[in-house]
Structures are given as structure tokens and as C-alpha cells.
Design goal:
- The protein contains eleven helices and no strands.
- By secondary structure, the chain is an all-alpha fold.
- Among the domains are: about 35 residues, no CATH class; about 90 residues, Serine Threonine Protein Phosphatase 5, Tetratricopeptide repeat (Alpha Horseshoe), CATH 1.25.40.
- The radius of gyration is 57 Å and the shape is elongated.
- The N and C termini lie far apart (about 165 Å).
- Keywords: Membrane, Transmembrane, Transmembrane helix.
- InterPro entries: TPR-like_helical_dom_sf.
- One of its GO terms (cellular component) is chloroplast thylakoid membrane.
Length: about 270
């Protein structure tokens, strides 16, 4: 703005001077043209000087420092953005690992409940686990397979078949799709109608009995330690005398060798004594 103000004041002053001197002022036309040319050149030079004076001396060292400062600020901003993205990525990875671990724990607990016959609890835990992982993942597909079996166990046959069909059509894992198709084929097979009289009833074993129950090896060891004793009332002594069996030491050859040596020594002793 200061440069424009100086230029405008310069032009205004020249116009006022020309108006005061009048049109007849100056030499001939030929000489006036050359004079005007030189005067214009002088004005352009003066204008450049005025612009230079208005702008002041240019300091190129300051400009380079400003550029360096702006570049360093941009680099710091880029590094800060990269660091924030890295931290966000790590945080998301840790959160996903935690959620996946919770889903795996729920799956294991539901499998135990299913094995013990508590199907309603198994359904609840499997549905909760399915909300934590995407259904198109391998873990999500495994959870859905177990959920379909639990649906069938609690009597929700339609939900079971629908879940199997959804797995067959949408899941990316070929093995899970094939497993779902096989289980759906079994679930859709006609059921055999069995009456209660035809069912086999297995009594439940109490926990206290399981703790006190002995293993087969312990029972055999106890039987070997305890000799078989017959009660005095049921023993038949005549039968024992008729069916007499010598003890084990009488069947041993070492016993008879020892008896023979003993009798020989007794005979020799009696012979020398006489």
C-alpha cells in the first residue's frame, strides 16, 4: 500500500506541474518527444527506486530460515500424525485381542454346559459370544455351529436349520460350510419315535459315591491281601480231610533235599556213636 500511495502522489504532482505551465511550454515537437522519452525513463527509474525504498532491503537469509522453519513444522506435524495413527492401531489391536479372548472363553464354557446337558445356558453363552466377533470369521463360524446344535437340543429346530443354511450360503470357510451342510442333513433326517418304555434309564451317580469309589486296581490289591476265609458254620471238615492238598512247602524240591541231608547226618551220627 505504501508503494501505491507514493506512485499516486508522484503522478498527481506531475499532472499539477504540467497544468500550471500550460500547453505552449517546452521546445519543438521533435525535441519534446525525445525529452519526454528520457523523462519517462527517468520516471521509471525513480519509480523503481521508490519501490525499493518502500520495500526496504531484502534479507534472503531470513526467507530461507522461514522456509526451513515452515518445513520443520510440517515434518513435526506429519510425525505427530503418524505417531497418533500408530497408537490408535495398537489400541485397536489390543482391544480386538481382548474381545476375541472373551469370546473363546464363552465358547469353552458353553461347550462344557452342552456336554453336561445344560442346553439353555449353552445357548445364552453362545449368543453372547457371537456378539463379540464377526460371524464371517473362523471363530464366529465355530460359535454358530455350536449354537445351531444347542438350538436343536433345546427344541428350536427351525432356528437350527436356518442357522445351518446361513452358514452354508455366506461363510467364507469351506470346511465350516461343509460341516454345516452335514449337520443340517442329520438335523433334517426323520426322527424315530421311541416311547418311554423303550428308553433305557441310566441312574445318575452321586458325587459322594464317586469320591469314595475305588478303582479296579485298588479292589484287586485288597482281594489279594485278604485271604479267603470260610466261616466255621459252613466249613465241612470231612470234605477237607478227603480232599487234602499238601501245603506249598511240601511240593518244593529244596525241602526234600534238606530233609534227605538231615536224615543222612543223623544216620552217620548214630553209626559212629555205636
Amino acid at each position: 500500500m505504501s508503494v501505491l500511495v507514493v506512485l499516486l502522489s508522484r503522478k498527481l504532482r506531475a499532472c499539477i506541474t504540467f497544468a500550471e505551465r500550460g500547453p505552449g511550454y517546452g521546445p519543438s515537437a521533435s525535441s519534446s518527444s525525445s525529452t519526454n522519452q528520457f523523462s519517462d525513463d527517468g520516471k521509471e527509474g525513480d519509480d523503481k527506486d521508490l519501490v525499493a525504498q518502500a520495500e526496504g532491503p531484502q534479507d534472503y537469509s531470513n526467507v530461507s530460515n522461514q522456509e526451513k522453519t515452515s518445513m520443520s513444522e510440517e515434518e513435526r506435524f506429519a510425525e505427530e500424525q503418524a505417531r497418533r495413527r500408530q497408537e490408535e492401531f495398537v489400541r485397536q489391536a489390543v482391544e480386538e485381542a481382548r474381545i476375541k479372548k472373551e469370546a473363546e472363553v464363552l465358547l469353552q464354557m458353553s461347550q462344557r454346559a452342552y456336554g453336561r446337558g445344560v442346553y439353555d445356558k449353552s445357548v445364552e453363552m453362545l449368543e453372547a459370544a457371537l456378539t463379540k466377533v464377526p460371524g464371517n470369521s473362523n471363530l464366529g463360524g465355530e460359535i454358530q455351529v455350536w449354537l445351531a446344535m444347542a438350538y436343536d437340543a433345546v427344541g428350536r429346530h427351525a432356528d437350527c436349520i436356518a442357522l445351518y443354511k446361513r452358514l452354508e450360503g455366506t461363510h467364507p470357510n469351506n470346511n465350516l460350510r461343509k460341516q454345516a451342510a452335514d449337520l443340517r442333513y442329520i438335523a433334517e433326517a426323520p426322527k424315530l419315535k421311541i416311547s418311554r418304555d423303550e428308553m433305557v434309564k441310566v441312574p445318575l451317580i452321586e458325587k459322594d459315591y464317586d469320591r469314595k469309589a475305588k478303582t479296579w486296581s485298588q479292589t484287586v490289591k485288597e482281594k489279594r491281601k485278604k485271604p479267603r476265609e470260610k466261616s466255621a458254620q459252613n466249613r465241612d471238615y470231612l470234605d477237607d480231610w478227603l480232599v487234602w492238598e499238601p501245603p506249598r512247602w511240601e511240593k518244593s524240591p529244596y525241602f526234600w533235599v534238606a530233609v534227605t541231608i538231615w536224615l543222612t547226618m543223623v544216620g552217620i551220627f548214630l553209626t559212629f556213636q555205636n
